[in-house]
């Protein structure tokens, strides 16, 4: 209802004017309450709508996930994807609707209440104030006495001024009232009309969207009717097949249900067996066994890689076991171990024993023609244990290792007996072995020989390079140096007893090593050479801090020698890393030559020979020093008690470090300054070595005499790669401790990252040298 106040009545200030004001003021107060309520309801509606959009979006994402899960069903995937896209459009339309509602109702009406109604209230306050002042002036003017002329004039002047002010403010107040009454209608109708148009646009968009989707939904409905009919038909067929199978009698031959034969995939037999563990408790576990590719393997779960029980059935026997309490047991015995198994029935036991015996006989028949008919790349001994991609990848890795290692001189035949095509290796000796000799090496213990398969195991790149640095010829020149002089003949293939005696004498007793005279300390002349350079080396190493670089002398000042030390040639081509230890670079040329002569001396202490050869990256000399009895953890008291492993770090060779670690080097042994191999590798920025030491259990919490651990040094040197490796290793260690996973390698992400760094350090070391290269630019 429109309320209008007359300006003429305003000037009279009549009771009619006052009554009109009272009615208008009450109406405006009621209007303000209604508008405030409407704005609050609009805000609640918008918040609820936004929550609905969020829930609707989550529901739509669930439909998309279901569509991705149904990727093997084109009809379901296409339909769900199309529906989720349409729902996403509707969510967008809803969002636009709520935005327009907020602008039309909430913002517009709130602005009307805050602006126009606020002005009305302010005008009302001024009007009430001046009205009161006018009343006071009238009362004072009426009360003044006639005989007091001065007071009469003062009262008259005040009343005149007050009336004038009242008329101005009253007229402004009436104007504000009339404007408000006129504007309220347009503001309310304008906001509501905008709100309704927003709804109209929303429903039009939804209608257009589903009009386009309608034909597809109709076709899908017809297709769904056919699917329902087909599903009912398939159900009847399955019920009939179920009934047919259920009526069969398996009581007479139920053993066939317990094992399977898949000749097409090379599986002679497979099924469940109980296996007795080799631990102290001798527990029995049920596993899925199979005979394939002349091997006996088992799995706990289908996705697990098969565990090889017997690598080659030609070297094993099978027999009944009646001397234990359990029934239906049989034993598979190989040259290195035995495996106790239990079947579920006597028929199954006989079937398994027969299958093993048949496989042994078949393997012997095929033995003669195997090397001639089959190419090494597709040899059964390197074939995959199943048809999965993961096992195929593993086989390819093993075949690659076999080819690379057998290309080394002498590696095409067994190092100890000469049998052709060896497929086993001793990783700490760097030699290849036949399967029979590998079993004998295993019996020596890992402190003498660590055996690994060239075809069944996955080879780390640094370990593969180690094998390629040595080889049978190199090792035999050391360990069989006196075989001809002593008139001893090497054992032939098949002579197992002779092999055991020969291998033990060769590697454990080292009877055939040319044990020349070894002095406990160098001669005086050589000692002076060592002590002269040692002081400078100690100074240079002790001053070498995080990120410090030692520059290579100009090419003209460094020459290569005959001792195998890699230096810089006169033509300027760099064969030594740009950042190396101060051990050699702070020596004069004459001292370096004397030192090399000293290395070649036949009177060299084995520990010192290993120490020097480790820095020179000379693996044959290192193997020779170990054969002569060198302590792999020998500490050089003349050079801060540095070890051969620390020298290998300073020399910058990843393979040298791996060789020492495989031969028992202590990865945490520290020098006088409290720095271990990990400290030195971090200081020099050797990322590949840091990765190797962390994989081999280096303690990254150890601090040097300055109280710095490797992570602190890497952070100060701003070496991002090493900081990343150290932090990942520390995080993985904390995670394993919190979850109680002591002794386990860590999660797959951590292993993948370290595997990538290992591959890069061995195959693309230039990518890890960017820190040193960037440092040299400045």
Automatic annotation (TrEMBL):
Annotated ANK repeat ranges: 640-672, 673-705
PROSITE patterns linked to this entry: ANK_REP_REGION, ANK_REPEAT, ARFGAP, PH_DOMAIN
UniProt keyword list: ANK repeat, Cell membrane, Coiled coil, Endosome, GTPase activation, Membrane, Metal-binding, Repeat, Zinc, Zinc-finger
Biased composition (Polar residues): 379-388, 557-569
Listed SMART domains: ANK, ArfGap, PH
Membrane-topology annotation of the record: Peripheral membrane protein
Keyword Zinc-finger: yes
Coiled-coil annotated residue ranges, if any: 117-147, 217-248
Gene Ontology molecular function, alphabetical: GTPase activator activity; zinc ion binding
Activity regulation summary: GAP activity stimulated by phosphatidylinositol 4,5-bisphosphate (PIP2) and phosphatidic acid.
Positions of the UniProt region annotated as Disordered: 371-395, 542-579
Compartments, as annotated in UniProt: Cell membrane; Endosome membrane
Keyword Membrane: yes
Pfam families: Ank_2, ArfGap, BAR_3, PH
Listed InterPro entries: ACAP1/2/3-like (IPR045258), AH/BAR_dom_sf (IPR027267), Ankyrin_rpt (IPR002110), Ankyrin_rpt-contain_sf (IPR036770), ARFGAP/RecO (IPR037278), ArfGAP_dom (IPR001164), ArfGAP_dom_sf (IPR038508), BAR_dom (IPR004148)
Ranges where the PH domain occurs: 266-361
Primary location: membrane
Record-annotated Arf-GAP domain positions: 399-520
GO CC annotation terms, alphabetical: endosome membrane; plasma membrane
Summary of the function given for this chain in its UniProt record: GTPase-activating protein for the ADP ribosylation factor family.
The record's note on its domains: The BAR domain mediates homodimerization, it can neither bind membrane nor impart curvature, but instead requires the neighboring PH domain to achieve these functions.
Protein name: Arf-GAP with coiled-coil, ANK repeat and PH domain-containing protein
């Amino acid at each position: 209802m429109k309320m209008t106040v007359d300006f003429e009545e305003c000037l009279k200030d009549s009771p009619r004017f006052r009554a009109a004001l009272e009615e208008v003021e009450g109406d405006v107060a009621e209007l303000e309450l209604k508008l405030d309520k409407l704005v609050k309801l609009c805000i609640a509606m918008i918040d609820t709508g936004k929550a609905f959009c969020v829930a609707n979006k989550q529901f739509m994402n669930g439909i998309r996930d279901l569509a991705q899960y149904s990727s093997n069903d084109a009809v379901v995937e296409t339909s769900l994807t199309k529906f989720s896209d349409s729902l996403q459009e509707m969510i967008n339309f809803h969002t636009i609707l709520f935005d327009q509602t907020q602008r039309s109702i909430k913002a517009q009406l709130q602005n009307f209440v805050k602006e126009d109604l606020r002005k009305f209230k302010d005008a009302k306050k001024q009007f009430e104030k001046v009205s009161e002042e006018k009343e006071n002036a009238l009362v004072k003017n009426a009360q003044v006495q006639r005989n007091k002329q001065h007071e009469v004039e003062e009262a008259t002047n005040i009343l005149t001024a007050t009336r004038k002010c009242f008329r101005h403010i009253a007229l402004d107040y009436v104007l504000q009232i009339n404007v408000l009454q006129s504007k309220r209608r347009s503001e309310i109708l304008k906001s509501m009309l905008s709100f309704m148009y927003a709804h109209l646009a929303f429903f039009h968009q939804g209608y257009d969207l589903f009009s386009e989707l309608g034909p597809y939904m109709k076709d899908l409905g017809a297709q769904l009717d056919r699917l329902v009919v087909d599903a009912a038909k398939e159900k009847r067929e399955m019920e009939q097949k179920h009934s047919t199978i259920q009526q069969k009698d398996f009581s007479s031959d139920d053993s066939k249900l317990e094992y399977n034969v898949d000749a097409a995939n090379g599986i002679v037999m497979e099924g469940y067996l109980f296996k007795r563990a080799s631990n102290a408790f001798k527990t029995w576990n049920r596993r899925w066994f199979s005979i394939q590719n002349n091997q006996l393997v088992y799995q706990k779960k289908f996705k697990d890689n098969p565990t090889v029980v017997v690598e080659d059935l030609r070297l094993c026997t099978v027999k009944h076991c009646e001397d234990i309490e359990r029934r239906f047991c049989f034993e598979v015995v190989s040259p290195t171990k035995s495996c106790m198994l239990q079947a579920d029935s006597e028929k199954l036991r006989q079937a398994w024993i027969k299958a093993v015996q048949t496989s042994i006989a078949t393997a012997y028949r095929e033995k003669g023609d195997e090397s001639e008919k089959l190419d090494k790349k597709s040899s059964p001994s390197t074939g995959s244990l199943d048809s999965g991609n993961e096992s195929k990848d593993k086989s390819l890795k093993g075949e690659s290792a076999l080819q690379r290692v057998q290309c080394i001189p002498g590696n095409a035949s067994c190092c100890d007996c000469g049998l052709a095509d060896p497929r086993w290796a001793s990783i700490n000796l760097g030699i290849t072995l036949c399967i029979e000799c590998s079993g004998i090496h295993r019996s020596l213990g890992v402190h003498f020989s660590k055996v690994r398969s060239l075809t069944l195991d996955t080879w780390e790149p640094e370990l593969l390079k180690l094998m390629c640095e040595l080889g049978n010829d190199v090792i035999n020149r050391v360990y069989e140096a006196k075989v001809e002089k002593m008139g001893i003949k090497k054992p032939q293939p098949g002579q197992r007893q002779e092999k055991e005696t020969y291998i033990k004498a060769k590697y454990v007793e080292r009877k055939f090593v040319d044990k020349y005279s070894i002095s406990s300390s160098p001669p005086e002349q050589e000692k002076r050479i060592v002590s002269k350079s040692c002081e400078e080396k100690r100074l240079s190493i002790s001053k070498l801090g995080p990120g410090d670089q030692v520059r290579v002398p100009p090419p003209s000042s460094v020459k290569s020698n005959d001792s195998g030390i890699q230096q810089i040639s006169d033509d300027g081509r760099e064969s030594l890393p740009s950042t190396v230890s101060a051990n050699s670079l702070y020596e004069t040329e004459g001292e370096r030559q004397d030192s090399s002569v000293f290395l070649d001396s036949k009177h060299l202490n084995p520990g010192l020979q290993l120490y020097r050869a480790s820095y020179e990256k000379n693996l044959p000399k290192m193997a020779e020093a170990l054969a002569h009895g060198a302590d792999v953890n020998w500490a050089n008291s003349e050079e801060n008690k540095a070890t051969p492993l620390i020298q290998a770090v300073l020399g910058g060779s990843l393979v040298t470090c791996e060789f020492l670690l495989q031969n028992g080097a202590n990865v945490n042994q520290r020098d006088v300054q409290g720095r271990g191999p990990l400290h030195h590798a971090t200081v020099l920025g050797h990322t590949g070595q840091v990765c190797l030491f962390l994989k081999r259990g280096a303690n990254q919490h150890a601090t040097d005499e300055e109280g710095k651990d490797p992570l602190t040094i890497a952070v100060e040197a701003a070496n991002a790669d090493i900081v990343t490796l150290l932090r990942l290793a520390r995080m993985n260690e904390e995670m394993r401790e919190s979850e109680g996973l002591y002794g386990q390698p860590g999660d797959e992400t951590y292993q993948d990252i370290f595997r990538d760094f290992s591959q890069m350090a061995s195959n693309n070391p230039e990518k890890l040298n960017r820190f040193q290269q960037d440092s040299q630019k400045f």
